[in-house]
Amino acid sequence: MGTFLPRSNFLPAEVTIESIPEMGFMRIHLPERLNVEWMLNHIRTSSYGVPYRFVGQRVLRRPLRFSGVPVVAEFDLSKAGTLGLRLLSDRRRACRSVRKDAISVGDLAVRARFLWGLNDDLDVDHPVMASDPDIAPLLQRFGELRIVRAPDLYEALLVAVIGQQVSVHAAQSIRRRLMENIGTRITVDGDHGRENYYLYPSPRQLIAAGEFALREQGVSRQKSEYLLEIAARAVGGELRGEAFQTLSDEDALSRLCEIKGVGRWTAEIALMRGLGRKDVFPAGDLGLQVAVQELRGMRERPSEKTLRKIAERWTGWRSYAAFYLWMTLQARAL
């Protein structure tokens, strides 16, 4: 029999919002060779795609926070070569915030470029990748891609820790329960009635919820401790991107590994997804080991040490090598 946990009285925050014409609509140009279909396929199957919701074949939305203000961002890829951006938010609150915090689609454009990896300049790396005997066939299959990211290091760590040593399905279920039961609910007036979107719990929400509420969502006791530690570090300002800006990849990994529950694999995933580092390769990842085994026709799955040695040939763009290798596994889910 499992341990009895008293039911938590913690309730998620709730915000009701609507489309704000005054906040405008804009488009940003996409890289000429970007394969939009595979980018969307990645979001459909990735852990980092959980907060997104498709409202059309090429239109999707996800909740975000701007200076603590919850909004829903719409990304419209229906027009070739561009990414359309629109913010949906509570009219009274959002308009006040626009004046005070300058929240606008311009701010969303900056965030979107990071989320969709559009700041990555692959003009130098792409030809090198295209000449690599292992990665070249993947470029031919998937086209030019960008790494889809979390909006910040805190969320990237949250997603990675929940995914430690559990099945993808179990991790996805836990993440959704955290958002729906502890995070912030945002209600949008959509084309077919009201639509609910859910933000991951903020660090303060996570701390306020406490271990009992986390356990109720399916998080183990040990991982609850890890998540609360991460939240405490975030509240203390230790996970701000600026705090890592001048650190090398190895120094940044060392700093993250000081956090209880964050080993090298988790730290490497967080650097890739939360800070946008382009030369990180989480060789301890089982999926990457399987992908390389299949790609190279190896009899046995390569060890972390062997895989790290193989990845040395991809130095400078190892994060992208990992991303393309993951895509070979995600493609099976489609």
Topology:
Elements: E1 13-19, E2 25-29, H1 36-45, E3 53-54, E4 59-66, E5 69-76, E6 82-89, H2 91-101, H3 105-115, H4 125-130, H5 136-142, H6 153-162, H7 168-181, E7 184-190, E8 193-199, H8 203-216, H9 221-235, H10 249-256, H11 264-274, H12 286-296, H13 304-310, H14 318-330
Parallel strand pairs: 1-7
Antiparallel strand pairs: 1-6, 2-6, 3-4, 4-5, 5-6, 7-8
Characterize the structure shown.
It contains 14 helices and eight strands. It has 334 residues and is α+β, with helices and mostly antiparallel strands. Among the domains are: 13-122, TATA-Binding Protein, CATH 3.30.310; 123-146 and 278-334, Endonuclease Iii, domain 2 (Orthogonal Bundle), CATH 1.10.1670.40. Strands 1, 2, 3, 4, 5, 6, 7 and 8 form an eight-stranded mixed sheet that branches. Strand 4 and strand 5 form a beta hairpin. Helix 6 (153-162) packs across helix 11, helix 8 packs antiparallel against helix 9 (221-235) and helix 10 (249-256) packs across helix 11. The chain starts with 12 loop residues before the first strand and ends with a helix.
Average pLDDT reading: 88
What does the main sheet amount to?
8 strands, mixed
CATH class of the domain at 13-122: Alpha Beta
Order of helices and strands: EEHEEEEHHHHHHEEHHHHHHH
CATH topology grouping of the domain at 13-122: TATA-Binding Protein
Dominant shape: globular
Q: Helix- and strand-based class? A: alpha+beta
Straight-line distance between termini: 38 Å
Q: CATH architecture of the domain at 13-122, please? A: 2-Layer Sandwich
Radius of gyration equals 20 Å
| DSSP summary, beta strand count | 8
